[in-house]
Amino acid sequence: MFAQTFFLLLVLPAFSIASPTAGIRTRQAITALSTAQIEAYKPYTYYASAGYCSPSTTINWSCGANCQANPSFIPVASGGDGDSVQFWFVGYDPTLNSVIVSHQGTDSSEILPLITDAEFELKSISSTLFPGVSSSVEVHDGFGKDQAQTATAILAAVEQALSAHSTTAITTTGHSLGAALSLLDAFYLSLQLPSVTVNFIGYGLPRVGNQAFANLIDSKLPNLSHVNNKEDVVPILPGEFLGFVHPSGEMHIMDNNAWVACPGQDNDSDECSTGDVPTIFEGDSSDHDGPYDGVEMGC
Ligand SMILES: *[C@@H]1O[C@H](CO)[C@@H](O)[C@H](O)[C@H]1NC(C)=O
Ligand SMILES: *[C@@H]1O[C@H](CO)[C@@H](O)[C@H](O)[C@H]1NC(C)=O
Ligand SMILES: *[C@@H]1O[C@H](CO)[C@@H](O)[C@H](O)[C@H]1NC(C)=O
User: Fold this and answer.
1) Which of 9, 33, 111, 128 is the most buried (most CB within 10 A)?
2) What totals of helices (H) and strands (E) does the chain contain, helices first?
3) Taking the mean position of all CA atoms in its chain, how far away is CA 236?
4) What does the alpha-carbon distance between residue 162 and residue 148 come to, in Å, rounded to a whole number?
5) Which of 227, 21, 193 is nearest to 105 (CA)?
6) DSSP code of residue 54
7) Ligand 3 geometric centre to CA of 30 (Å)
8) Is the CB of 169 inside a 6 Å radius of any atom of ligand 2?
9) Which atom of ligand 2 approaches the CA of 224 most closely?
10) For ligand 2, what atom is nearest to the CA of residue 197?
11) Residue 282's CB: how many other CB atoms inside 10 A?
């Protein structure tokens, strides 16, 4: 059960050590998002939340307010068992004119009671699923293993959705563990379907891979967003001292509910997660599920 591995992310100490080898850095300022920019995230926030729905309710698209918030959604396929395989779904949103891919996450009430000695490490990304990617590109082995379980089924569903709805856009989304899986899916789909525009919008994303991974994600998915809520601890884990680095694209929700765009990877300004939550002891796991502009994650 992956949740056990995921728990270890929480119990490890997280020291805020700025990586001297950090690759892509920008000189942009931290900027506040406008109300309209924040509102543009809303449909994706609901799709991330809907990742928690079981396949049957997703197919029928009726498992509570967060699923029904995108009423024009056209489901294409879904799967997972909510246990060894996180639920997932693929469909099409006519308003966004994008194929949507979402994975179920884990809420903090599921994560916190679990104490195990499960281990994880950075491992080279799968050369089967990610052909041509250097073995220096490493990801959390639990995330990599979980993403591999559903990758080809999701690719087939995405190809079906693309041809049925004549769009060339895919957005992957998810919360928590679901965000990690959907970030890997976005990278996977961008390699498998090079003529399609792929983007990722995730919430409460833990660190997924190493510096080489973060740099490659920055170049392949230059417009991605990972939204972090206040003092959530998950985004600062696993710790940078273990070699993990976030890609760019953090949006941080401040204590006053303003959203700011944080330039660079793991921006250590106290307006951004890495700087605001230097250790897990300064974090608040109850911020993990939201609210993200009013939306609490879950089904
Ligand atoms: C969808 O809902 C209908 C009516 O409630 C039900 O008969 C059907 O089995 C459901 N489909 C799935 C895939 O669960
Ligand atoms: C980049 O992402 C933002 C937020 O998801 C979106 O509003 C915008 O249209 C995207 N821009 C491009 C060029 O894809
Ligand atoms: C963090 O943001 C500031 C802008 O306030 C920028 O100058 C700095 O380079 C960024 N840091 C990183 C690590 O990207």
Assistant:
1) 9
2) 10, 11
3) 13
4) 21
5) 227
6) -
7) 7
8) no
9) 2
10) 14
11) 13
- Which ligand does the CA of 75 lie closest to? 1
Q: What are phi and psi of 290, to 5 degrees?
A: 125, -160
Query: pLDDT for 110-142, tens place per residue?
Result: 533 332 235 688 999 999 999 999 999 999 988
Question: In sequence order, what are the residues at sequence separation of 6 or more whose Cβ sits closer than 8 angstroms to the Cβ of residue 100?
Answer: 47, 73, 89, 90, 91, 92, 93, 170, 171, 172, 173
Best of 33, 197, 223 for a ligand 2 pocket test (most atoms within 8 Å of beta carbon): 223
Reduced to 3 states (helix: H, G, I; strand: E, B; else coil), residue 247 is coil
Which residues, 6+ apart, have CB-to-CB distance to 133 below 8 Å? Answer: 125, 127, 191, 216
**Strand 169-175 to strand 197-203: parallel, antiparallel, or no bridges (unpaired)?**
parallel
CATH superfamily of this structure's domain 2-6+24-287: Alpha/Beta hydrolase fold, catalytic domain (3.40.50.1820)
Of all protein residues, the one whose alpha carbon is nearest to atom 14 of ligand 1 is: 56
Q: Give residue for tokens 């660190």.
A: 207
Rounded Cα–Cα distance for residues 267 and 262 (Å): 6
- Residue of 57, 59, 60, 63 with the most ligand 1 atoms within 8 Å of its CB, for mutation: 60
Question: Closest residue (by CA) to atom 1 of ligand 1?
Answer: 60
- CA-nearest residue for atom 12, ligand 3, is 267
280 or 259: which leads in pLDDT: 259
Q: Cβ neighbours of residue 81 under 8 Å, at least 6 residues apart?
A: 87
Which of 41-45, 126-130, 171-175, 295-299 has the least mean pLDDT? Answer: 295-299
Nearest residue (CA) to ligand 3, atom 1:
267
**pLDDT for 218-261, tens place per residue?**
999 999 999 999 999 999 988 898 899 999 999 999 999 999 99
- What residue's CA is closest to ligand 1, atom 6? 60
